[in-house]
Amino acid sequence: MELNEIDDDIEAFLVESYENLNQIERDIIELEKASADGEALVRIYRLLHTLKGNCGFLPFPNLESVAHAGENLLSCLRDRPHAITPDIISTLLQTVDTIRQILSQIQTTKDEGDRNYSVLIRTLTQLSETEPTVRVSQSPLPSVNTQTPQIEAEAQRYTAGSESVEFLTHELTETSMTTAESAYIRVNVNLLDQMINLVGELVLARNQIIGFSPKFKDNGFAATCQRLNLLTAELQEGVMKTRLQPISSIWQKFPRVTRDLAIASGKQVEVEMEGADTELDKSIIETIKDPLTHLIRNCIDHGIELPAERVACGKPIFGRLFLRAFHESGKVNIEIGDDGRGLNLERLKARSQQLGLVSAVQAAAMSESEAMNLIFLSGFSTAEQVTHLSGRGVGMDIVKSNIEKINGTVEIHSQQGQGTTFKIKIPLTLAIIPALIVSSGGERYAISQASLQELVRLEAQALNRIEILYDVPVYRLRGNLVPLVYLNQVFHQDSVTNLETLSLVIVEVDNYRFGLVVDTIEDIQDIVVKPLGKQLKALSLFAGATILGDGTVALIIDVVGLANRTGITAKQKQLLNENGANSQEQAADHQTILLFEGPQGARMGIPLAIAFRLEEILASAVEKVGNQDVLQSYGQIIPLIDLHKIFCVGVARRTPTEKQATRSVSQRRHRDRNHLNDQALATVAEMLQVVIVSPYAELSVGLVVDRILDIVEEPLTIKGIPSRPGVLFCAVIQGQITEVLDIETVIRITNPHLLQLATGAM
């Protein structure tokens, strides 16, 4: 056998062995539970049996000996009424750790090394010969049936020297498994990374070609551009899915971590997991693994009480540690919490003063959330003594910074005596993201759409509403003071801001909002995130770079870093105190309305408060479930409501197929003239503008409109009666009569079942 063939066999062996070992570790933890049945024991025995057989084939005699000793203990637990004691569980877990250590050695050197494992093997053998009298698990453990009588017969013929028979047993076992496994293949991660990079380059090329398309008055070229756009979007979505992994890939290790930490701290802890199948990008999973592990350590070490303390408080002796994951609003939400003692805010303040992190004046002025966030300060710890678990003041600050590096946020919710929950929000992926392109000082920048709240254009008459407060320029937006950051000043650019209009990009950081003053706002487009070079990585203002459609490079603004650099977050406390009753009264006189063009050119609007986001989608992305049109967007299934079907009965919006047929006829009639109009038709026909609205927390729907017009803030002093069903009232906005929609009625007309579900959930 040639060397490269041996390497391939070792690689395949390692991949399979690591998978089996992870399952073995999870099943060992299950064995310790009183409710555990015999299935976990069966799996452990079978997987160890498989691993041992593969070792004999390669061969790795030391690893084979350890696995064989573990298998013997499992055989005794199967065949005789042994008690599954904590000592047995700990020894089995030690066996797993030893096997994982040997696999790591093989992965590094292609050799298992010459380390002596006789002590562990002797311990396993002694446990196999011991007959305890107390059983932890009350349910009888069934004997192991290795799939078929043929395999059982072969297994009974196994001896220490019959490696070929052992390998035959493994192959027969694999053959008897379900054929469902044939639907999956293993792909090297490096290959997936290369595909991601190529798709990223394709997205850039797509953006460049679409940018060139207006220069060519050729309807065929425009149609080809749209086809390229569609295929690239579908390919991008498909390739991104190949990198998605369920969060269970890291959660599966937490029961073992919890057990070890609980034993080390003298506590009893039960783990509950919900949403383990929630998927996110592999790169993000690798980034959050350590922060999540540290949060679990924090919950067990600082949160959950000792058994005696819990009993004295009337709590169950077992502490509860829970992990939840779910998709919401285009992000992955992760919650890690406990039912322990909760955070003592006064103790946190006192400890922070003792450590010199804050002054007494600062501590006295803190809100509850600010006091909770003290645990994220570098050097903060409530432990009086340094132990192997805590006390060094390193960890929670790293948790926060690592999560922020991937554009995520972490919040704390705690109630003293009841427990603490850490809520984390992170993006699905970092490779290709939607971003807003802006310009300042002749340079263009990208801002992740995840940070955007809204866009505001101030006309000349509104510029006098910019004030200076606490040495910070602020704008009063709907009664609340929003601090402003002028990008040209931050980047030391020589540019003159337009004195007649001002463009504001409202972003949010740590539940605080501030506005970026830019020269122009261009468009939202998918961008490929490129890491900064070594020389620029120290710049906290930028999260990366991207290549735009015209081939120029744009830096991606790190909103968190920008807020920290400009000191905006430090000023927020003072500014919030200014948002008093007078501001609320002023806000009551004004309403912010999202304006759009509806059916037959009607001017319509909805309150911005219920408008969640704006999207431009391909018509082909619309799917139908029953009689309801739906859209997959940011991890949600959004019902779509076409306003044409409500306000133009019998004149519904044409389907993409009907549009294509109309376009073909038009192209034949005007092949030799009016190419520009044909091109516009080919470009627009496939796109839909959608306003995602959320009238209730449990309900989001998409309104398909003809064209987004503007967002305005005006006093609605002139109102008229509703003009037709689905309209709340008419109003004069910007000097024109506008129909303000009644969203509940619109939903009720289209699909009353949606409204019933939303109101029922409340």
Commentary on this structure:
There is one protein chain. With 762 residues, this protein is α+β, with helices and mostly antiparallel strands. It has five domains: 3-144, Up-down Bundle (Four Helix Bundle (Hemerythrin (Met), subunit A)), CATH 1.20.120; 189-243, Helix Hairpins; 246-427, Heat Shock Protein 90 (2-Layer Sandwich); 437-586, OB fold (Dihydrolipoamide Acetyltransferase, E2P); 591-761, CheA-289, Domain 4 (OB fold (Dihydrolipoamide Acetyltransferase, E2P), Beta Barrel). 43% of the residues lie in helices and 26% in strands. The protein has 26 helices and 30 strands. The chain has a six-stranded mixed sheet with strand order 10-14-15-13-12-11. Helix 2 (39-57) packs across helix 7 (163-175). The longest helix is centred in the first third of the chain and has 29 residues, at 3-31. The protein is globular and about 90 Å long. 29% of the residues are buried.
